[in-house]
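Lay summary

Proteins are chains of building blocks that fold into shapes. Our project writes down both the chain and a compact code for its shape. Here are two examples, one after the other.
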Amino acid sequence: MHQSKLGFDEGMLFVMPYSGFHRFWMKNTPISLDLIFIGEDLKIKGIIERTIPESNEPLGIDEPSRYVLEVRAGFAQRFGIKEGDEVKFLKIEVQK
């Protein structure tokens, strides 16, 4: 929130305490983001691309996720990231 710029090599990883149907909104976020939802199995469960800045609309997918990665809008398309891709966390210990 309140970030006016974000580099292509920057983002925020949300580590949820449990898998579930997590929802996000863009309130107080003046830039567009891609939201990448990742399951317990470390596979991408869904992507919401190019969110609408400052929107209060809840954003989520219809499948449980444990992690959500927020990155600059266009990141997923630019790097060919898609649903089903496997994710590897480097220097982050994941507890299952």
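And here is the second example, written the same way.
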Amino acid sequence: MEVVRRAFAPGQEGDFEGYISALDPEIEWDGTRAVPDTTVAHGHEAVRSTCRRWFGAWEDDFEVQAEEIVELAPDILLVVVRDSGTAKGTGITIDRRNFQIWEFRDGLAVRLRVFLDRDEALEAVGLRE
């Protein structure tokens, strides 16, 4: 859990290295269910590119906070994340939660999937609330 806490430490917005350091170099990062126009990213550079694109769409008020971290199994975490901010150009604001499934091997995330629905995230790992 500590590696995820560090990944979401205050001030990470725009500086992804703390986040990237929690990921295996061969990470499979799937935000397709939550981030528009996104494909599955493989590896650090692809995740950096996805993050730059996503964060670049928001004004300086954009914040990402891990609200809850739940151990579902020894190497699987559910991370409840709150995104809030104002979109550049349109002024549209969001304040939403997403639910991330982090799967670990040797202390690094090897697979990360982002969902907008908690039940869907839990079902993805064979669990239900």
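What can we say about the second shape? The chain has four helices and six strands.
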